[in-house]
Design a protein that fits this description.
alpha+beta; Pnp Oxidase, Chain A; 4 helices; globular
Length: 162
């Protein structure tokens, strides 16, 4: 089972709020996809929030876009900015949907334009909406915290590994 970003944010604000704040501040995430041979690919990717969706935008026919068109499974990771992980790390395990709806694509373009005063031209870009399968958050700062979420079990605060 997967849920659209806004449903995830309502179900688990403990992770979604943290991840969204980091994504907005850093304006990107690290995206993990699967290459055609099954090996992993990790690349930075810009993202924006539009109409309740978390949308990844990509250059037309980029390798990561082709990965997602072939296999929609992916992971998003907030960018770690210090060795001790004091800001905490959020990981979003997801499947993407190729956004073809003209209205949602325009809403996405408007969000990009507002953020960086530029927007991709139609139809020469990919836009993928994130449907969340599960998520996790960990911080090594005090209080050390581990939170996990999935639709079947809900939100769980886990013991910090020693």
């Amino acid at each position: 089972m997967v849920v659209q970003w806004d449903e995830f944010a309502r179900a688990c604000p403990q992770i979604a709020d943290h991840a969204a704040a980091r994504f907005r501040r850093q304006e990107l995430c690290m995206l993990g996809t699967l290459r055609a041979d099954g090996s992993p690919r990790v690349t930075p990717c810009e993202l924006d929030f539009a109409a309740g969706h978390l949308i990844l935008g990509m250059m037309w026919q980029s390798r990561k876009a082709l990965d997602l068109l072939r296999d929609p499974r992916c992971v998003l990771h907030t960018c770690t900015t210090d060795r001790m992980g004091t800001e905490g790390d959020a990981k979003i395990y997801a499947r993407v949907l190729d956004v073809q709806d003209p209205e949602l694509r325009q809403t996405y373009r408007d969000a990009v334009k507002e953020r960086i005063d530029w927007a991709p031209d139609e139809p020469n870009f990919h836009a993928f909406s994130i449907d969340v399968e599960s998520a996790g958050f960990i911080t090594f700062a005090e209080p050390k915290t581990v939170i996990a979420w999935d639709p079947a079990r809900g939100t769980r605060v886990l013991p910090f590994p020693d």
